[in-house]
Amino acid sequence: MLMTAASACKQRLPLRLMSRTVSTAEVPPPLIQCTRMATIVEALDLSKNYGRFGALEGIDLSIPEGSVFALLGASGAGKTTFIKTLLNIIAPTRGAATVLGVDSRAIGPATLAQIGYVSENQALPARLRVADFFTYLRPCYPMWNRDLENELRERLRLPARRKIGALSHGMRLKMALACALPFRPRLLVLDEPLSGLDALARDEVIGGFLPQAGATTILVSSHELDEVERFATHVAFLHEGRLLFQGSLDALREHARPLLGNSSVLEARAGPSLRTMFVAMVSAARRSPAETAAALH
Amino acid sequence: MIKHLLIKDWKLLWPMIGLVTAIQIGHEWAVYRSGLFGESAGAEVLMRPLTLAWFAGIAALAAATVHQDAIPGIDQDWLIRPLRRTELLLSKLIFVALTIALPMGALNLAHTLAMHMPLALSLKAIVAKELFVFVCFVIPVMAVASATRNMTELLLVAAALVLVYALGVGASALLLGDAWCPTCNTGMAWLQHLLQHLLILAGACLILGLQYYRRTSTLSQSLALVGAGLLAFLQVTWSSAFAVERLLSGVREDATLVVLELGPQGAPPAGEIPGAVPEARRAAQHLMHGDVDQAIVDLRRQARTSDNVALDLPVRASRAADEMLLADRSQVRLFDRHGGILYSSVSANSPGLMFTSADDPAHSLGHDIVKIPAKTYEAAAVAPVRLQLDYFLTRVKRGSEYRIAADNGRLQAPDIGVCATSADRNTVTLHCKSIRPAPFCFSATLYDSEGRHNPEVFKCDPDYRRHWPPLVDILNFYGVDVPLRDRYGIAHYTVDASSLGSSYLLFRIYTELDHIERSVTAASFQPQVWRTQGP
């Protein structure tokens, strides 16, 4: 049986903060207080069909405020479709979602001013210079912090005079990341932010960028499970448009234990990796429901 | 936020804006330098490619402006920015107005002032023209661009629209026959154009609204294609076009003086060749008026065998001395004894028949050549039938007159603009450019110093549009050729090249008075009496 947001809440699963640098004031309560803790994103029966193809099938998902929520799945699992549906870029076929308390289909400038978004496929104006792009964005956001912008640009070593089209893929992603934080968004959505980055660049993003996010809730989609494990507090597994699991990492371990069977000595000491759990759950999902139920019990 | 969007688009598009402005400068320079008689050969040669480049340039710039923040797709940056859709749309419209209309207006103003046109009139004409270009060309281009992601998609959709429109026109012509466009080739055609422009504008506004507020690209593209198909079928009926014209011009009391009647048989108007078949008569008429090419067409037509029988119906018109009548449309009907229609046809290539003031101050005779099928002719020849000719006429009145030297003359006046003449051994050519709409009916008569003159040469292409600005050139060009010599040696003119130095042209403008309907009826009509040609 697959765990839903509601069932995860009922079990009062612990929230784990890993490599994020957060001040004491920002530390959320140790347990997900489902009745009290604010939910920043909530999806109910969210579905999207392209003709007969179901890209999303009845997704029920909630993202607690202050979490780093990793949406994981193989390529084509529906991660990007889910994110674009949340941001009103794609209209859902069925179901609904709220983002920052607003119906996703009614998201307007006031809500978007509180959402930072970075995507590997984001079409940026190629002929514009990096500095000009920042100049263009500043007045869009009333809360834009110029000092934070300068700090991010310096930390990520963005060349101000270079045209965006002349930047490498990694530099473009870093620039998009640097544009997503200076207005202190309440929700930061990162769609495959590590895709195509080399190891150094990934470390730079994870170590140099994410700590700047502060109390911002982060929704990150990725298929880079090992990297995500370094900073995620919550995960959701998507497989072929269906949600396999959502909850904290500890809850995930609890949930996946019956599926794992004999683990290696290393894993027995450190606990199973995200990758192992993901593979086990996807394999279970591919089996018949009867086989899955037998494995879980 | 609009300001920042404008600055962003400027930074992205300034090289393209520079190119389009350079094309506009080049085009305006070519138009100015080619003058009234193509004085600069280089400018004359460049004018056509620059006009095409001008259209392509402003269309590409308008589309590129929209494509900077393309509407279809899911990866555009603007989708996740806190931008109001209205601000985005307004910024695009303002940007296009600033980068296309403003430079074009400035160049047009420089051109008109260089041609010594009055400032107030120039400004009025420029505002009207820029608005016309913006509303009828730029906004539709932006609408189609808003439903596409990039230039390639835009070109594909534009090609599809042209194809659908062409198919629509073909289907409409096939289904409706001659009635597919009742106002085409008449002075009322502007009403049809106005309707089409209004529909295109309404469709463009609808698509822009759908795209910027709903992002329904498939629906928008479908609407555009359906609209292009329907556009071919939406026609202004003749009766409604004529009613609108009558409403706009009013009908004067003295219109009652105009009477049409069937003239006496075999009485060709003065100057025509008695007994000649209609085409030969028309050819002679065209020759006398210097239109040799049309005369040859008439003669060729005459030589062609036909299954039709031509009837030459002389129609006599009574009217005021300084007026002319232009037939915008005529309908011929033959009824049998019981009132059934034997034959009906419509001629709507205006002016089909002109009653000029050239010959008789109060009356004039026109010959309406009606071709009826041989079978109908034979049926009607057995028993007398009733003939009814219905004419939709426009009265035009002789307006201002100007004298201008026949060779190298130059004249400037508020209602004609700048005019100049040029002559060779065969022809005196009068060309004019005006900031006002060009007169649709005017004539030129060549006089020598002793008062002798050649036939009055008319140039009447009925066009009753009001306040309709030009699309490309700010100045309206018009002119007429007055023959001095018949290249074929058939006609001889009183004033020829030998007296050109002391000759002058009398240039007359005719202005629209009103639009009236008149009918001519012959209760007992015997077609064989009027037969002039047939198998």
Estimate the helix proportion of chain B, in percent: 40-55%
- Please tally the helical runs of chain A, counting DSSP H or I stretches of 4 or more residues: 12
Biggest β-sheet description of chain B: 7 strands, antiparallel
- Give the fraction of residues assigned to helices of chain A: 25-40%
Instruction: Return Rg of chain B in Å.
Output: 27 Å
Spans of chain B of 5+ residues with little confidence (pLDDT < 50)?
A: 266-276
The general outline of chain A is globular
The strand count of chain A comes to 10
Task: Give me some keywords for this one.
heterodimer, A: 297 residues, alpha/beta, 6-stranded mixed beta sheet, 4-stranded antiparallel beta sheet, 12 helices, 10 strands, 34% helix, globular, disordered N terminus, B: 535 residues, 7-stranded antiparallel beta sheet
